[in-house]
Structures are given as structure tokens and as C-alpha cells.
Amino acid sequence: MTIKAAITSASTTSWIDHLPEAALLVDAGRDLIIAANSAMGRLVGTDRQSLIGTPCTHLFTDQRPQLIAFTEETLFRSHGWSRDFILQHRDGRNVELEISSSRVGEAESQSLLLLLRDRRQLRTLRERHDANHYHRGGLLEWRRVEELFKDMERENQLILHAVGEGIYGVDAEGRTTFANPAAERMLGWRIDELMGRVIHRVVHHSHEDGSIFPLKECPIYAAFRDASVKRVGEDWFWRKDGTGFPVEYTSTPIIDNGHPVGAVVVFRDISARLETQKELQKALEEVETLKHRLEMENAYLQEELSAEYHFHEILGQSDAIKAIVRRIGMVAPTDANVLITGESGTGKELIARAIHQSSSRRDRPLIRVNCAAIPKDLFESEFFGHVKGAFTGAVSDRVGRFELADGGTLFLDEVGEIPLELQGKLLRVLQDQQFERVGENHTRAVDVRVIAATNRDLKTEVRDKNFREDLYFRLNVFPIESVPLRRRIEDIPILAQEFLNRACQKFNRPPLALREPDVETLKAYPWPGNVRELENVIERQVITADGRLDLDLQGPDSVARHTLEPMPPARHFDGELMTEHELRELETHNLRRALKISGGRVFGDDGAAALLGVKPTTLSSRLKKLKIEPRQFQERDL
């Protein structure tokens, strides 16, 4: 009789039903249960007849790939064994299985016999067997087991004592069941003081800020409530003395017969780590600040290098220049604030640079701020910087000029243009060397020397309530007057020749020399634009020169015709002293003449400011002070 015939015969059901374990006879090729015994029916909670003729894979719906692999292994090896399968009982519970398999029949046969065992029942049987074994072993065996457990408990205690992390256990009600010495040391409580107490109310009752931490939100209790491990990276525990400390911890549930009965909490003090992180963050912020500052300084220095200065050293041999050099030598080694006064174009910035280069701050930058060019609303941000979001358009943090000049010198050009409402904040920085960025409460300290310059009469501004008196006295610690060119005419030949050499080199022209008539012509002019105007005139002469200079004031094509047009005889400057009234009349006449030539335009390459060699803002201020309206000259041209 063949194996196939034996399988299909009625006797199959008889012999498989006598097996002591749940059994299935399966046709692997057709995925069909051929026979099942009563034990198999009890295992799944149904009768065995309902299993016969159904696919075997229906019993292992979620493990179909594993079942196929297991079947192929059995067919290849003729037997198999696995503890990886789970089937579902009719009442919904999962049954963990241990399966033994064997091929039935010849080598080509695809019939398999599967013996299925409930792993939980196997454990129960083994435990019962062990208990019977110990019981039969008598008192000696029990003593041996007791000693064994004592040794295990002692080893566990040694481990708990040796562990550096704090460990404590809680029952299902959150009451403390044990704690190791590290937990006692960190929390400041003895184990006997914690035993039986709800530990959340002792060490975990509040957040770091003191706000209540409800017990129902505690991750430690959630561990055995959800039967899942909870890991918390940063939290807060409280000591017995009322102080707190940051912790990280893991709460692992204790499961008994499928039910959570408590949890084990392992925690560590992370104060040192957080402090290290804060120090690292602070260091990174300082590095970023220094990086940003260096970038700003580099950009500023690049701007300074690319700018064209009118002169790089103080030129002249007049008594006025010698006096200025002496005063520079006196104040440079100190940190005293300096106020440089004088008309536009006299070289106030040159004096400031000479003071800085002769001081102990020469290795730090000289930061220049043109107060006349800063919009009123941006003064505070330009001086003190701002933080991101401080106002519309503040898309990132910005370092102010005071912070940029820390350790160096800050040159406030046209200081008289600073708005009155900001002068108080400037005074505070000069007094305390402290400031806050716009939008920030953090006070920053700086070490800055201030050199200010102005073409205004600040005493008059103070009297007219346009400039704070206390700020004036704070700036005017050491005054230096930058003498106008008309009061040091003996320096004109030196300056003119220096500017001539530079202009020839700049415009790639052959060298030119000043003639005696040229020098006399230059000396005869009062130079309201001072040294800057002189340089502009020389540069225009070089541009138009045809082999030699032509400073003929009467020539119709002379570039200097308008600029060097002589004054009326009554006002001609012949080297003698002039009264203040005469100087004011002379200045007014020259300004009106420049406006007439430019058609009333102040700004632009052909504007009056360019003709005079002064800044447009300076010229506008001067016209306003003299009550000269440029539009009058525009209407006259029409």
C-alpha cells in the first residue's frame, strides 16, 4: 500500500488522533490540511473536523513567508524544528508554539507531519517537574537552593551598590520598593525614608521652574501603565534639602503574567554635562561673535583701503601745522577724548588718524563714522548694533560701530549732526563704556577711545539747545583746531606739488611742475574748500593740462576759471588779517558764485559741492546757516 493511499485512508485519522501532542498532516504542495487530531482542535479552540480540508497557511496568516521557508527546509532535510510561530486561539489570545516537523513517505513526497506544542504549557510542565524534583530532593536540596538564591541576591546587591547611576523601583501604585546607594546619595534620602512612599511626590513633583508636575503626566508611571519603556533625555528631580538637579532616566515596566506590576527607574545627574554644553555653546557664540566681528573689521578695512584719501601724512611747515603736530604728540599716548574743530576739507580725519597711529591702540582698528550720512532712524543701530527682529528689516544680528572699535579708536566725523535724542545714549557710553544693542537687554562693555570732529561751532549749538552741554564737555577733553588753508598759505606750494605728483601718477600723465606764477595764483585764493578744494583743482588741471599747467584766471578755457575767480578788490585777500565779518562776506560771495555756476545744483558731479570740493551735506548745512536758497539760482537760469 502506497503512502498516498495510507494518507487518504480512514486509518489516518485513527493513528494521528492517538498522538499525545497537537498534530497536523499537511500536503505542502497543495497547502492543504489532510488530517488533525483532537489536541490540535483544542489548541485553536475548535473541532478537528473543521480544520481538515482547509489551507494550512490560514492558521498562520501573518507568518506565511516563514511557514513556506520552514516547509521547504523540512522537505529538504526530512525534518525541522522552530519556536518562531504563533497562532491565534478562537478566544483571541495568541499561542506561542514550538513545532517539530517530519516528511512522511518517500523522498518525492510533499506530505508533512507537524507536531505543535504550547510553549507556555511546556514552561508550566518544566516548572512543575523542577518543583517536584526539589521536593523529592528533600531538605538538603532546599537548603542548597536557598543558599543559591542568597548568593544571587548578594551578587545583585553588589551590582546595585557598584552601579554609578541611581536605581529605584516602584510598584503599580508608585510606592518605592527599593533604591540603591547611588540613588540615596543623589537624592539625599535614605532608603528607609523612601520605602512605601509615592516617590513622585517626593522627588518628581515639580518641573524645574517650580510648576506642578501632575502624577498622571509622569513618564515613569506611563511605563507600567502602557507596558512600554520610557526614555527621557532631560527632566528634573528634587533632593531632600529642597534643591533640584537635571536628570535623564529610563523607566522600564515590570511585567508579571502579562500584567505590569511596577517599574524600575535608572537615572543619572546630568548637571555637569549640561554645564559643559552651556560652556561649549557660549564658546561657540563667542567664536561666532568674534568671527562676525573680524568679518566686519575686514570689510571695513577693505573699504578703507579702497577709499582714496586726500593725503597720508601731515604736510606743511607753517607754525599752525607745527602746533597741531605738537598737540598730537601730547594727547596721542593718553586715552583722553579729542575734539577736532575746523572747516571742511582742512584734514580733520588726517589728524584723527595721526592720533590713533601714535597711540597704544594702533594695533586695533580706527573705526570712522560719518554722522552726517546716517539716516536719523538708524543712528542707534549704527552706533550700538541690533539683534535679529529688533525692527523691520533687521533680518540678522548686527555689530555696531562701538563694538567694532572695542580696544581701538572710534572717529565720529561731523559729530554735530547726531540727533539730540541720541546724544544722551552716546554720553552714557562715553561715561560708562557700556551699551545695549537695539532690541536686546544684555549690557555689553567696551574699551573705546573717541575722537570727534565737527565744522560747527558746538558752543553756539549748546547755547541754542541743539547739542547737549554735558556731551560737549565729555568730547572736548582735549581740543585741536584744524587750521584752514588761508591761515597757512606758506604750506600751499608743498601741498600743491604733492597733489600734482599724485595726480600725474593717478591719471598716467607725464610729470608736471608748478611755476612761480602758478604758486602766486594759488596763494592769492582764499580756498573756502581748504585742502580738499586745492587737491580737486590740481586734479582738474592735470586732466586738462597740455604739457604744462595753465592757471590763467582770465583764460576762457581755464578749468580753474570759476573756482579761482578773484574776489572783488574790496575783498581781495592779500595775506593781511581779515575780520570775522569780512570772512563771512567772502564765504557768502563764494557760495553764491558756486551756485550760479552750477545752476542752483548742490549735489552731483557738476554741483556746487563738487566745484567747492566739500561734502554736499556740509554745503547744505552751510547754505542753511547763511540763509542762502539754491532754488533762487535755478529760477535765475530760467
UniProtKB/TrEMBL annotation:
Keywords recorded for this protein, A-Z: ATP-binding, Coiled coil, DNA-binding, Nucleotide-binding, Transcription, Transcription regulation
NCBIfam families membership: sensory_box
Q: Kindly list any coiled-coil regions of this protein.
A: 273-304
Q: Which GO terms describe its molecular function?
A: ATP binding; DNA binding
Give residue ranges for domain Sigma-54 factor interaction: 314-543
Signal sequence extent: none
Q: Which organism is it from?
A: Marinobacter nauticus
Boundaries of each PAS domain copy?
Answer: 152-204
Annotated InterPro entries? AAA+_ATPase (IPR003593), AAA_lid_NorR (IPR058031), P-loop_NTPase (IPR027417), PAC (IPR001610), PAS (IPR000014), PAS-assoc_C (IPR000700), PAS-like_dom_sf (IPR035965), PAS_fold (IPR013767)
Source organism superkingdom = Bacteria
- Please cite one Gene Ontology biological process associated with this protein: regulation of DNA-templated transcription
Q: Name one Pfam family in it.
A: Sigma54_activat
- Record CDD domains: AAA, PAS
> Has keyword ATP-binding?
yes
Residue intervals of the PAC domain? 231-282
Q: What is this protein called?
A: PAS domain S-box-containing protein
